[in-house]
TrEMBL record:
One of its GO terms (cellular component) is cytoplasm. It is found in: Cytoplasm. The keyword Nucleotidyltransferase does not apply. GO terms for molecular function: methyltransferase activity; RNA binding. Belongs to the methyltransferase superfamily. RlmI family. GO terms for biological process: methylation; rRNA processing. Its main location: cytoplasm. Keywords: Cytoplasm, Methyltransferase, RNA-binding, rRNA processing, S-adenosyl-L-methionine, Transferase. This is SAM-dependent methyltransferase. It comes from the Bacteria. Residues 30-103 form the PUA domain. It comes from Thermodesulforhabdus norvegica.
Length: 416
């Protein structure tokens, strides 16, 4: 089958490709040798090989094909898949001592789910699989009760996508599996974008899910990302101790996740701001479902325009914008954007107020974001103390040897 690893065999079954077995061994794959001394990151658990770290050009390789990665001294470092047109030339998915059998892939999915069930116990809403951190770079799966939503963001994952979909169906027995192959990551990989239903069916366009006692409407096909932002799940619980009888502003509120938590935790009133009309409609529906519509109002506006024109002050502000730096080239302008945004937000706080401000750009390190906030504080003429520095929810685990898997920074600041 064109585009699929040669060692996976398929048969035809009603026009659908179903895998039969895995055959062959690691040594059957082409070898790519690293430049001298370039193996250190991989030995620490990193899963990316950059184009300037290998001794030969990959131009003759088909995107998504598999290669053995070895050090300059000949030590085997893992099996990976190639994209000759990307700075990230190889992504390691099978470390030394492991073989890419069907059983290996099933084990990755099963272990990932077992970890989430340990963390969230009875909940069936979580990120089930988180790319590199769980062993398959570029593969993301979110679980919304009996609906699974996945993204196949690399050529290597796209090549084995039918296999993974079938495994998800067998392991978790969902009523529906949705594919959201419409991410910017696929565009960077040179892949087509699309979305739809890969397995089963949805009787409605979306579904209600319960996340830690709160209800949210999920639209797996038309919602942003996979339908919900699950990475702030634990951070939102911070509001319980911070918002009682306070005036709260939720910027880039999307479907009202922070807003509804604040209202349920006793905020006097909450204003949510976003420029997406569909997201705000879901926010209003979510607020009504959770019984807090009387204390939540949602405004459709560009956040920068709102901050320039609105005259109110707030006791607690949450600023959770989309990624300003999609790549390293955008980092310089992103720094300016984050600095200006946070300066304006700081000016909206009442004396002694609390600011929860975030960056989900993985190119923006915690150290750099810290500097951005110091610069914004200086420009605003206001001083702050850090109460906490937090990150993404534990169903988005961070590889010890791969800092890129830590993308979310969440600073909790108190105006002194």
């Amino acid at each position: 089958m064109a585009g699929y690893p040669a060692n996976f065999l398929f048969r035809q079954d009603g026009g659908r490709r179903i895998e039969m077995e895995f055959s062959g061994d690691i040594k059957s794959y082409p070898e790519v040798i690293l430049e001298k001394g370039r193996e250190k990151r991989l030995l620490h658990g990193h899963r990316w090989v950059f184009s300037n770290e290998i001794t030969v050009s990959l131009k003759g390789f088909k995107p998504g094909s598999w290669v053995r990665v070895v050090s300059a001294k000949g030590a085997y470092l893992g099996l990976g898949y190639v994209n000759p047109n990307s700075l990230i030339a190889i992504r390691i998915f099978c470390p030394p001592g492991k073989k890419p059998t069907l059983g290996y892939f099933r084990d990755l999915l099963t272990r990932a789910n077992s970890l989430r069930r340990r963390i969230f116990k009875d909940s069936k809403v979580y990120r089930l699989f988180f790319g590199e951190s769980d062993g398959l770079p570029g593969f993301i799966v979110d679980r919304y009760d009996d609906v699974l939503v996945y993204q196949a963001n690399t050529h290597g994952i796209s090549a084995i996508e039918p296999i993974l979909v079938k495994m998800l169906a067998e392991l978790f027995n969902p009523r529906c599996i949705v594919y959201r192959n419409d991410s910017s990551a696929r565009q960077l990989e040179g892949l087509d974008t699309d979305k739809g239903i890969a397995f089963g069916s949805l009787t409605e366009q979306g579904l209600w899910v319960n996340v830690d006692g709160l209800w949210f409407w999920v639209d797996p096909i038309e919602g942003q990302k996979t339908g919900l932002y699950l990475d702030q799940r634990e951070n939102r619980k911070l509001l319980k101790e911070l918002v009682k009888d306070k005036r709260v502003l939720d910027l880039f509120c999307y479907d009202g996740g922070w807003s509804i938590h604040a209202a349920l935790y006793g905020a006097r009133y909450v204003v949510g701001v976003d420029q997406s009309a569909p997201a705000l409609e879901r926010a209003k529906v979510n607020a009504t479902k959770n019984g807090v519509a009387d204390r939540c109002s949602f405004i459709r506006a560009d956040v920068f325009d709102f901050l320039k024109n609105d005259q109110d002050r707030f006791d607690v502000i949450i600023c959770d914008p989309p990624a300003f730096a999609k790549n390293k080239k955008a980092l310089s302008s992103a720094i300016k954007g984050y600095t200006d945004l946070n300066r304006r937000v700081m000016l909206k706080l009442t004396e002694g107020g609390i600011l929860i401000t975030c960056s989900c750009s993985h190119h923006m390190s915690e150290t750099l974001f810290h500097q951005v906030l110091m610069d914004a504080s200086l420009a605003s003429g206001r001083r702050f103390a850090i109460l906490e520095i937090r990150g993404q929810s534990p169903d988005h685990p961070i590889l010890l040897g791969m800092p890129e898997t830590r993308y979310l920074k969440c600073f909790v600041l108190h105006m002194t």
